[in-house]
Each structure stands twice: as C-alpha cells, then as structure tokens.
C-alpha cells in the first residue's frame, strides 16, 4: 500500500515474519511514531489483538499479535517499553491496559491526542479521533477506518498515520497557548498513575452493602477496578465511573485491605480551597483578570477560554464569570492533587515500597498499606502533597490529614 488517503500520505503493509527489529531500527532516528492498539482496553482482563506502528516518514506496519514470531515479539515488547522512541497515541490509557494484558508496558508516550485536544478546548463533547481530525485538520477518515475495532491492515495504518499527524498539529496549538508542559509534565504522567491504579483496583468485603451491590462489578480477583477520567470536566478535575466513587458513599464501607496488606490509609488536603483563594485574592480579581486576557487559568496555567466574559448579554456574561471562577479554583485544586499523585507515585517506586495508591475521589487519596510501612508511607505522602502545593507557589500551604481505615470523601475522620 502506497497512496494518499484523505490527506494522509499512507505507506505500509502487514508485518513480514522476522522484520520488526530491523524496521524499527531503520526508523528510530528520534522522530515520533504513531501507535494504535486494537483489543480490549479493560483494566482487568484486557488484551491486545493487533496494532499498527507508523514512522515519521509515513511508512507503517500492521501487526497481528497472534502471528508474531518469538523474535518479533521480543523486538515489539522492547520497543513498547523503551521510553526513548517518542510515541503518539489516541486515548492511551485503554491501549496501556490492552498491552498490559499481554505482559507489555507502554513507555515514551509524548502525545495522547485525546488529552491534548481536551486541554485546548475542555468543554468539547467529543474526543473521537475523527471528530478531532475534522476540527483541527479539516479532514476525515474513510468509513472503514472509523467505528468498531475491526480494521483491515490498511485501515489501521491509516488511523495510526492520522494520529501521528494530528499529534503534530495539537503540539503546535498547545505551544501557542503555553500549555505544552501541562500535557507533558502533568496529564501524561498522571495518566500512567491512573492506569496502574485501575489495574490494581481495591479489595471489597465479601459482604457488599445491598444498596450498592447492583452498582459495582467485582472482578474474579475480588477487587473492583474503577475507571478514572481526565477529560470529563472542563476544570481538569478527575472523575470516576464503574463505580462513581464520589456518589456512592456506602460503597466505601465495603473496601478492605487486600491479601498481604495490613490496612488502608486515606490522605486529604486540609483547607486546599482556602490556600488557593489566598493565592488568587478574591472572586472579583479572578473574574477581572480572566476578562482582561480572555481566559481563566489555574495555578498550572490550565486555560479555559471564555469569550462570553465580554458579552453584552447579561445571562451569558454571568455564566462565563461563574465558569471563570470554577476553572481557576476547581482547576487549581485539580492541578495540586494531580501533582501530588505524581510525586507520591515517584517516591513509592524510588523507595521500592510495596504500599500502593489505590483511589482518588473528592480530592482524597487512598492507599493500601504493606506491613511495616505505615510510618514511611505517611511521611512520603505528606512530602509529596506538600511539594505539590509549594511547587505552584501557593502563599498559604495547605495541611494534610491522614485517616486509618475508611470513610467516604469529605466526611470527618481521625487525623
């Protein structure tokens, strides 16, 4: 296959046995690859069936994973796990789960086009690849490359080429609004943390409260595996589904420590909103600053453009003012919590602790505590949360409360 399709210069074919290592080496010159994974992206039980890789020069390979030779499988696993070759993926978290189902880790993702598009226009409803192509590149995929994951080798290579080209366009747009670092230093690293949290899940008691039994699905490992979302709010606040951890408080009564762990611990910021307001002074100042520059910004410069701030229509203007306040305050809280999660995850791995982060809900973080690690865990969780606040220059540093055991987000507990 060597053709121009819908604006994309597509060259490639199905992988021939034994050629993958040489093909990857030939194209590994520091330029970014596009990657698309086909399969089940569930956190528990997911697996990958096929994938396509497209190099920067437009040459691509379709790979049927069931037909890999041992040499090709070794080359592919090594390339996927190598942080060196930069990779662009659309909606990378399910891809990570699917690959993990085969025992492979995905590193080196420098663009997730869904996350990048959300940062550019956080109120947009659809992050489907084809919709983003139409909006940002004024082109669309043919019908055979859209929809359910049953693609021919040419169709999947075409999708992957589109992801690669779209990533370049979105990179330029993010750079124009000074938001490149928000993707690279926050959203992509926290995506990896969320991927691991979803895969780990949390153990539940054998006796689940009757009123929530119908709302949760317990996997064969005795744990629930929620899905965490980075793109469902305009402010950047994380949400969850299957189940919604913020809105099923009785569910928390069923959470227990898993086998070989001694307990659960919850950490939450104390007076985070107050610290953020101290940073931004007051609501009127937030609104006037947003009106002057045309957008509201969080402490990490997460932007939401609000043209109606200067509207002559009072209703539209007041709605935009409320959105400006939410984008600033709620968005800043989301930034601090995400950076805390990244800090804590890095510390736990650097120390080689068995304790692990399980959940994020309502601004609270929940951990599964390994034997003999509670004090060390609490110390490094506190350090990570404090560093997140001070790193954004908050004038008043928020405190941190710990609870042994559990209670729903926002409820009182033992400090």
TrEMBL record:
Q: Which residues form the 3'-5' exonuclease domain?
A: 11-175
If you read the UniProt record, what top EC class would you report for this enzyme, in one word? transferase
Cross-referenced SUPFAM superfamilies, in alphabetical order? DNA/RNA polymerases (SSF56672), Ribonuclease H-like (SSF53098)
Q: Which reaction does it catalyse?
A: DNA(n) + a 2'-deoxyribonucleoside 5'-triphosphate = DNA(n+1) + diphosphate
- Start and end of every DNA-directed DNA polymerase family A palm domain? 7-373
EC number(s) on file:
2.7.7.7
Molecular function via GO: 3'-5' exonuclease activity; DNA binding; DNA-directed DNA polymerase activity
Pfam family example for this protein?
DNA_pol_A
Q: Which keywords describe this protein according to UniProt?
A: DNA replication
For this chain's UniProt record, which GO biological process terms are given?
A: DNA-templated DNA replication; double-strand break repair
**PANTHER family annotated for this entry?**
DNA POLYMERASE I (PTHR10133), DNA POLYMERASE NU (PTHR10133:SF27)
Entry's family note:
Belongs to the DNA polymerase type-A family.
Q: Quote the protein name from its UniProt record.
A: DNA polymerase I
């Amino acid at each position: 296959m060597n053709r121009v399709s819908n604006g994309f210069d597509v060259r490639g074919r199905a992988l021939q046995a034994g050629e993958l290592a040489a093909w990857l080496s030939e194209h590994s010159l520091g330029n970014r690859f596009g990657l698309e994974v086909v399969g089940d992206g569930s956190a528990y039980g997911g697996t990958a069936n096929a994938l396509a890789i497209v190099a920067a020069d437009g040459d691509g390979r379709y790979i049927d994973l069931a037909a890999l030779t041992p040499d090709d499988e070794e080359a592919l696993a090594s390339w996927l796990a190598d942080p060196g070759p930069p990779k662009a993926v659309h909606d990378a978290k399910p891809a990570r789960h699917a690959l993990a189902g085969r025992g492979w880790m995905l590193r080196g993702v420098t663009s997730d086009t869904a996350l990048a598009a959300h940062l550019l226009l956080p109120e947009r409803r659809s992050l489907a690849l084809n919709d983003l192509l139409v909006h940002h590149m004024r082109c669309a995929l043919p019908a055979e490359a859209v929809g359910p994951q049953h693609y021919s080798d040419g169709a999947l290579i075409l999708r992957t080429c589109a992801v690669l080209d779209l990533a370049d366009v979105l990179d330029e747009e993010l750079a124009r609004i000074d938001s490149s670092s928000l993707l690279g230093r926050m959203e992509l690293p926290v995506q990896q943390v969320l991927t691991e949290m979803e895969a780990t899940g949390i153990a539940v008691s054998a006796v689940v409260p009757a009123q929530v039994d119908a709302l949760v699905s317990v996997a064969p490992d005795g744990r629930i595996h929620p899905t965490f979302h980075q793109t469902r709010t305009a402010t950047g606040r994380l949400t969850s589904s299957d189940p919604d951890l913020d809105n099923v408080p009785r569910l928390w009564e069923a959470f227990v420590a898993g086998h070989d762990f001694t307990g659960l611990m919850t950490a939450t910021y104390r007076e985070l909103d107050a610290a953020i307001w101290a940073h931004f002074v007051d609501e009127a100042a937030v609104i006037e600053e947003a009106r002057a520059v045309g957008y509201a910004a969080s402490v990490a410069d997460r932007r939401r453009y609000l043209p109606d701030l200067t509207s002559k229509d009072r209703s539209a203007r007041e709605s935009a003012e409320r959105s400006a306040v939410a984008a600033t305050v709620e968005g800043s809280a989301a930034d601090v919590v995400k950076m805390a999660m990244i800090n804590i995850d890095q510390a736990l791995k650097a120390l080689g602790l068995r304790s692990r982060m399980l959940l994020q809900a309502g601004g609270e973080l929940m951990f599964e505590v390994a034997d003999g690690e509670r004090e060390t865990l609490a110390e490094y969780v506190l350090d990570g949360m404090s560093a997140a606040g001070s790193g954004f220059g908050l004038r008043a540093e928020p405190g941190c409360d710990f609870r042994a055991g559990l209670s729903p987000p926002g409820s009182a507990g033992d400090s």
